[in-house]
Specification:
This protein is of the alpha/beta class. 34% of the residues lie in helices and 24% in strands. The strands form 7 sheets. Strands 12-23-24-25-21-22-13 form a 7-stranded mixed beta sheet. Strands 4-5-6-7 form a 4-stranded antiparallel beta sheet. Helix 1 packs across helix 3.
């Protein structure tokens, strides 16, 4: 019984950061329904076993789990393999991801980007990074570079970078052909009338094409639109003669003022799918209502339609995902920037010390289901812990420190391992003797300085292991002040071992009994960003 409980407790702890008692019991009972008569005993032993393994590090948990369940990780990998793409032929798959250069990418964008990228590589196909920059009012030059940098950080490599703005002459030619074939028309109606006609399923008088000669005026900036002729009585409002070209009289960062008329999103993405020969697209289900109209547009333009796979949104519990709200918080100064620890941007996760491999594994685990996912941060943290644990050397850190003086210390050599799983990395050695001042997180009458010796009433009290509190410490003369930026953007101040002065910005550490951190700055004070427990 204990082995079964231990097996599922370890698996649950490694998956979610901390074992959940009820989840473990459910798994145990599921494997051995005959044990239900011993439910009280199972509940008692589950609590005890979970309490025991809570003190273990991930490396010890993983080794023990592999001992009890050798194929656990192979089973998991097989279970989480992505399904096949419908109609995909190796070597002939062309997929893309279309960021708009107007924002910083967040973890939700990463899901769609990585799924398209991973599938393209799975089929030895082509992957295109397509910048959807057809709205000069939104596009900003800085975001082209930002988007590329962030997706490269995730490990993505594209075969081509494409820009809608590079194909404007092609769009103009296609529009002129659609007008000539009477598949589109110039509409001079006001926005309010167009909106009202769509609601009332009423065709406007422009539909007969008498205004098509005004296309040349639109190209010069006249405030008319070009609409695709479909069906004004269609049950899908998106099919009621959608606008495909409109004037956006703003300077574009790549084309300047060369073009005044720009394609709408639906038309731009439809035509680009045809130009690039896209075979499959994976995108958020919020675009499902656009599938029908975009398929019509591609067909009208003479292009084949790709296979569209809709997926659910990916959100993190307790983290605001709304781009507009986050922009307001950043631009108002309430947030410190687009890498603020409270944001779900890739920049934020990078600065906090998350590994790109962990982000990739996390988003791919959610797969191609259409169900929206709101996952707790503990899931991402447990995955990231697996990647950073081996590289994160240990250091002692004391938050909000209090000074104490300990007397009567015989000459004692304290050796603190840099990493418990890698003895070859060495240790920090401190010689303590006589009267020493320590920085500690709390003042107690009796306690043990972790990995050192016991203290009682301010006096050395031997090295024998006793059932007393263990506390972190840094001794005076070996301390430097530092601060830690927490996930809620609060600041924790404290002292840390001087060994940190030999580190480099970007190194990860585990501050024992505090959490994993990444060294953010050594200038103007030592600063870390908190990653997670």
């Amino acid at each position: 019984m204990d082995k079964t409980i231990l097996k599922y407790a370890l698996k649950n702890a490694l998956d979610y950061g901390k074992a959940n008692e009820r989840a473990v019991i459910a798994k145990v009972m599921g494997e051995h329904p005959e044990w239900r008569k011993n439910a009280k005993e199972i509940v008692k032993r589950t609590k005890e076993i979970i309490e025991e393994i809570d003190a273990w590090d991930d490396d010890k948990k993983r080794k023990k789990l592999l001992e009890l369940w050798p194929d656990v990780f192979e089973e998991k990998e097989k279970k989480e393999e992505l399904p096949e793409l419908p109609g995909a032929v190796k070597g002939n798959v062309v997929m893309m991801f279309p960021p708009e250069p107007s924002k910083y990418p967040h973890i939700g964008h990463a899901k769609a980007a990585l799924l398209n990228y991973v599938y393209a590589r799975k089929y030895n196909g082509t992957f295109i990074l397509r910048f959807e920059d057809s709205n000069p009012a939104k596009v900003e030059e800085q975001y082209y570079k930002i988007q590329e940098e962030d997706y490269k950080w995730l490990g993505m490599e594209w075969d081509k970078v494409d820009y809608i703005s590079d194909h404007m002459d092609t769009f103009y030619s296609i529009v002129e052909r659609l007008l000539a074939e009477k598949k589109a028309y110039v509409c001079t109606c006001e926005k309010e009338k167009i909106r009202r006609d769509r609601t009332e399923k009423k065709a406007c008088e422009c539909r007969d094409g008498r205004n098509n000669r005004l296309w040349e005026e639109i190209k010069k900036g006249a405030g008319y639109v070009v609409r695709m002729k479909i069906d004004m009585t269609h049950k899908n409002a998106a099919m009621r003669d959608p606008t495909i070209m409109r004037v956006v009289d703003k300077e574009h960062p790549r084309t300047g003022n060369k073009y005044k008329a720009w394609p709408t999103y639906e038309f731009a993405t439809s035509v680009m799918d045809g130009i690039e020969g896209i075979t499959h697209r994976i995108r958020s289900k919020e675009f499902e209502t656009k599938n029908e109209v975009q398929a019509f547009m591609r067909t009208a333009c003479g292009f084949h339609n790709p296979v569209i796979i809709s997926i659910g949104r990916l959100n993190l519990e307790g983290i605001e995902a709304a781009g507009r709200k986050n922009r307001e918080l950043v631009e108002s100064g309430k947030y410190m920037g687009w890498d603020d620890p409270r944001l779900p941007t890739l920049r934020s996760f990078k600065r906090r010390g998350f590994k790109p491999e962990a982000i990739k594994e996390f988003v791919l685990r959610s797969g191609i289901s259409k169900a929206d996912s709101t996952l707790p941060m503990s899931v991402l943290e447990s995955i990231n812990r697996k990647y950073i644990e081996p590289e994160a050397n240990r250091l002692f850190f004391v938050p909000d420190p209090k000074k104490i003086v300990v007397e009567g210390i015989p000459k004692t050599v304290v050796r603190l391992k840099n990493h418990p799983s890698f003895p070859e990395r060495g240790f920090r050695e401190y010689v303590l003797e006589g009267t020493v001042t320590f920085y500690v997180p709390e003042v107690l009458n009796e306690f043990r300085l972790k990995d050192a010796f016991n203290v009682k009433d301010g006096q050395y009290n031997g090295e024998e292991l006793m059932d007393i509190p263990k506390i972190q410490w840094v001794h005076e003369g070996n301390h430097v002040e530092c601060s830690v930026v927490m996930p809620d953007a609060s600041i924790v101040s404290g002292v840390i071992e001087k060994a940190i002065l030999d580190a480099k910005v970007g190194q990860r550490f585990q501050l024992e009994r505090f959490g994993y951190v990444i060294l953010d700055s050594l200038k103007d004070g030592i600063s870390f960003w908190y990653t997670h427990k």
